[in-house]
Amino acid sequence: ALAASGGGMAGPCSLPVLLLLLPGLAAGPAGMLQPRDTPSRERKELGGLWSFRADLSPGRDAGFAQRWYRRPLRQTGPVIDMPVPASFNDITQDPSLENYIGWVWYEKEVLLPPRWLQGDPAPRVVLRFGSAHYYSIVWVNGVQVVEHEGGHLPFEADISSVLQASPGSLCRITLALNNTLSPHTLPPGSIQYMSDKSRYPKNYFVQNIRFDFFNYAGIHRPVVLYTTPAAYIDDITVTTTSSDSAALVQYQVSVVGSTANSLSLSLRDQEGKVVATGDGPAGELKVLNPNLWWPYLMHENPGYLYSLEVKMQAQVGRALLEDVYTLPVGIRTVHVTSTQFLINGRPFYFHGVNKHEDADIRGKGLDWPLIVKDFNLLRWLGANSFRTSHYPYAEEIMDLCDAYGIVVIDESPGVGIKLPESFGNKSLQHHLAVMEELVRRDKNRPSVVMWSVANEPASELPPAAHYFKTVIAHTKALDPSRPVTFVTDANYALDRGAPYVDVICVNSYFSWYHDPGHLEVIPLQLTAQFENWYKTYQKPIIQSEYGADAVPGLHSDPPMMFSEEYQQALLREYHSVFDKKRKEYVIGELIWNFADFMTNQDTKRVLGNKKGIFTRQRQPKAAAFVLRDRYWKIANESSCLPPVITSHSLFL
């Protein structure tokens, strides 16, 4: 798997061989509903301190050879406390763990409520990981229950039979996690062994990557145990259409464990009033005078969500079981023309950011104070959107996007696809599986208006045509209701994937990576970029990345690279072109980046990437105020609200 560069010791080729030869399990169930407490379901969160041990053996395989999963991890050797959720890299003072590549082991012992193990039939007990990077194998009480490849999407296992076969109510959860990246993982990477014994220790290797952010590893999102009845609601799919006076909510519900005796649905507004009802596994609900889901700053009540309660009753043996699940539903439509992006029939202009799940100490670990702070900064900024660069973000973040009206371009982990071998059938099949997981997780979210299947791939290579044609067609088949794109930095005349996207998303760094220091070239080069892309494809364009590094507190007038003044000046040059082209076919601008973030150590990086308009600690640089003034001005120009909207009236 793809990972941050770091030195380590291992036997020749042992890491990739060990990773790739592990037996795979069958794909998970069709449904992956987010765990929720309901009258028929309970959750037990397993955050906090877990036991942790990195496998420091030469081949990184001692844990498997000695079967560490068969007994408590503390009995296998030294363990340390490791917080979950968090990346393990920055938690200790051990530099070898900061850059560790290979297998690490986590363990948590949990006492289960006796009621979870009783009844005829007993409840179904499910173990779910929000994400763990990159390759996971999970055991419960020494029994393997699930494997999963991929570091940014949830996976789960029904562990009921394992618990029923174990004496008592103790549940010992063991996770083996490998952060190695190969040319066929997503994102891709490669292990490079250094054979020159005069320069490197024996068996020394590094993880090479082709993306510019630190490849943090660990259990990054919540781990939960949850219950359902033995017969249960497995999946719900909703799509919506609307007119001036009514809306239709089409639904499909799948049930597992028995044929449902009855299946009823109730749609409630935010006051709890039932506005529509239905029954059966498929149908539609008609909502009169609906409250539509609007983006932030397009409506005085953005992010309006209904609650869809699905109730199932099923006979299992002599027991009549009932399962209840409630799904937030936003009523909105998305449509793309040759020059516009329409939400609920109105033109929408993306004025937003690119982000990372990244912060001091915790790395990519989910952190509620940081999440809430970021959303307050987004709304202070006047941002109405972001792209989940360069991987799917946590469900908890997506929940707030739905609730606050923040529009999302939902991106897969397809970053760093540069080598020809990463366009082969093995990589393609995994990419298709990842898109299935992503669509399954986020298909019902009103905030998600477009899928992005990749970022800056080598889309000029010949195999990229078949690769992206296949991935995009597969994604559209999974979800016909949303446009699909990928983000390119290739030449418009050479890009072999662009013919298949609905919206052109292009990254460019004029006067930074190209003609560094020459701000005067931006108007000509950026104008030519837009005109060439539009003339070739006749599709709307989003400037999906642009920006410059700025070291906070570094000042220069006239502006010099890496100063706050240069970052400001570069943004203003780009904005002058945006303002001309957004009257035609440019439908959005996303700054790179919302906040500074960590990268591999490099001569071009001083403690990470400094292109944030906020520091890594979320303090504003001068450019944040430039962007804030611009975004609120755009919001007031395009909003249906009175022009009295201010940057204080809608986010406090």
Overall description:
With 652 residues, the protein is of the alpha+beta class. Helix content is 20%, strand content 30%. The strands form eight sheets. It has an eight-stranded parallel beta barrel. Strand 28 (385-387), helix 6 and strand 29 form a beta-alpha-beta unit. Helix 10 (564-581) runs parallel beside helix 11 (622-638). The longest helix has 18 residues, at 425-442. The protein is globular, with a radius of gyration of 25 Å. The model is unreliable at 1-29 and 642-652 (pLDDT under 50).
What percentage of residues falls in helices of 4 or more residues? 10-25%
**Looking across the biggest beta sheet, what order are the strands in?**
27-28-29-30-31-32-33-34
Residue stretches low in confidence (pLDDT < 50, at least 5 long) are: 1-29, 642-652
Please summarize the sheet with the most strands: 8 strands, parallel, barrel
Summary tags:
652 residues; alpha+beta; Jelly Rolls; Immunoglobulin-like; TIM Barrel; 3 domains; 8-stranded parallel beta barrel; 34 strands; 20% helix; 30% strand; disordered C terminus; glycoprotein; EC 3.2.1.31; signal; carbohydrate binding
